[in-house]
Amino acid sequence: MKPKIISWNVRGLNDINKRLRIRNMLREWKADIVCLQETKLKMIDRRLVRSLWSRVHIDWAFLASNGASRGVIVMWDRRVVERTEDFMGRYTVACSFKCVSNKFLWAFAGVYGPNPDTDRRLLWEELAGIHSWWEVPLCIGGDFNVVRFPSEVFGCRRLRLAMEEFSECVFDLNLVDLPLAGGAATWSNNQSWSRLDNFLISQEWESHFPDVWQKHMPRIGLDHWPILLDCGGIRKRQRPFKFENMWLKVDGFVDRVKQWWVSY
């Protein structure tokens, strides 16, 4: 079984017409697992889930919104994966899954990241906890509300502390940052753009699905592009290593590289 996973910041699910558009797109994309961020809903029931996804054998887990903001839902087809455990954090909905076809155990964490740097550090701690708790191959997807490199933000020329801390989380958890097919940006307001949405996978997860790749899907009037993680698609080319010269100007960067090198 090679699952297809959709991640999408939908900017609210209260509008019935928006839910209909989402339902039509999900039917077309034939995903097995769907993670929607910024639902802006305190409660999600079966009726609302059925209005989003037309499949019959659906289960779900959700993180309630905080007032009129945030909120995450993860939905899956029970004929493809079974939930064995779940965890609702402050910024994540995490599920331990078992594939129905081959009993492969793995975990998925759906993320909607906070904007303040201090809160974002709690997200990195949350992901580290999920990674260590289940000790199975891990896939993380969602809107992180931060990028790793200045080249992923329109007009940005400086490596910021938040970018460094995101990269530290990726390295510390031995995650793979997959290239994005179809364009560099996942969010745009038609004046600016950035790559806020992403899938990150553990090396064990990539070993099980060596042909995994992620790509843009069409936008439907929203400022975020849906992202598809396809685990059985076209074999990807070797990932290029991305190095930013400005890293050399960051205090402690060389020492950090030495630590990573020794750890391998």
TrEMBL record:
GO terms for biological process: DNA repair. Residues 6-213 form the Endonuclease/exonuclease/phosphatase domain. It comes from Carya illinoinensis. InterPro entries: AP_endonuclease_F1_BS, Endo/exonuclease/phosphatase. Transmembrane segments: none annotated. It holds the Pfam family Exo_endo_phos. GO terms for molecular function: DNA binding; endonuclease activity. This is Endonuclease/exonuclease/phosphatase domain-containing protein. It comes from the Eukaryota. PANTHER family: BNAC02G09200D PROTEIN, ENDONUCLEASE_EXONUCLEASE_PHOSPHATASE DOMAIN-CONTAINING PROTEIN.
